[in-house]
Amino acid sequence: MSDSQIQPRLRYGDLREWMREAERLGELRTVLGASWQEEIGLAADVVIPVDEGPAVVFDEVPGCPKGFRVLINVFAGKRRNMTLGFPEHFTKQELSQAFFEHYLKKQRNIAPRIVDNGPVFENILTGEDIDVTRFPAPVWHVHDGGRYIGTGCFSVTMDPDERWINAGCYRAMVHDRKSVSLLFVVGKHADIHRQKYFSRGDRMPVVLVVGGDPLFFFAAGTEIPYGVCEFDVVGGMRGKPVELVRGKVTGLPFPANAEIALEGFLDANIRKREGPFGEWTGHYAGGSTPQSVLDIHAVYHRNDPIILGVPPLGGGSDEMARYRAVMRSAMLKQELAAAGVPDVTQVWCHEVGASRMLHGIAVKQRYPGHAKQAGVLAASCGSTVYGCKFVIVVDDDVDVSNLEELMWAMSTRCDPATSIDILRRMRTTPADPRLTPEQRAVRDYTNSRAVIDATRPFEWMDKFPKVNAPSPEVARKAHERFGYLLRERIKAEG
User: What CATH number did the domain enclosing 417 receive?
Assistant: First the structure.
């Protein structure tokens, strides 16, 4: 059976089953007694940048009830493939291609099923019993403005007109026992919902879900089209309806097997300063700004609840960049095909650009302008328009997921005067450290981006100098014959 014929198999149904699978792989560690004030964040700085670093669960956090835990570093090592249901031997590019083939090309969303009860209702807290400071929400980075219970989280909201449900990943900072601020980014789906509620003078119902099936978080952190519910998408990935319960205050649905859920309302007249926070760009770019506050009316949690922590580290070294690179690359390839761009052979949204800022596209050129067509569209697609800065288009002899190969192609096949086009006033993110103070003052979240044609010019491709590297077939034979030399070196160093 070829890799393309292998069917995904998800061996877990919730976060606890996922942890058992990680333990089976030998990739789960437990740390007792680390503080939320500093040590959990420091541990994250150590293990997350290493691609093969383990998942770590923190228990017995000082000042918090025993059994209230934090889990970090889900999407790394063998866990990356396990989480999406594919074999351990798949490379990241093969994993992205498998995600494209099995979850996007064959996408069939399945509506969720509402149930009366679930593990998340094992503990129901209202009134004076509410105290979110009991959870071991860490201070992730040394200059953060507070404790962030929400990094591996998502907010459930409803469009008040069309009544569709959105689950989107927006960070959440603890303020006190009964309130957390939510950073709904301007123009994102939850913000559009918020604008609708506030424009009619209504409070906005929200359920913040912290911890649970990682697939919910991955879907919530990806550019699912407006009007499509992430719960339907995860149901399609699982091949069956996901089970949801309804909040007892707002009636909003959320996963029955969630670890923690905070239910309440946003009020247009209540804002508190949120941040600063170490952003996914690797900078404190967003500063501290007034943001909407979730007034918590009910807290639901499982026995011994688990916060899923996904702190951004920047520099392409965090798990958010890793999982989004796999998923966004597949989504961009799908969008280019849907836009009518033929023979896009490979796509990679690079981790070093947090999967948003630097994209490599490989094409098998068929006509003049083919590369430019692919590049301009890739800079503007739904999955990439937010925060993109560089799109590099190369020929199909380049592995675009290999940053060295991508830079080699750009260095040798691109003429800066004729091969680079600049697109202006494109949508970017408040987290972009290159936004000027003047732009921030008027909320001008736009940037420019470069589309770089690093292909051999189509008109004289046959005259372009040949490469001096062996063909893939010759390279394979060379490794079969002499690969033992590298293996001996690795063994000696080990």
Answer: 3.40.1670.10
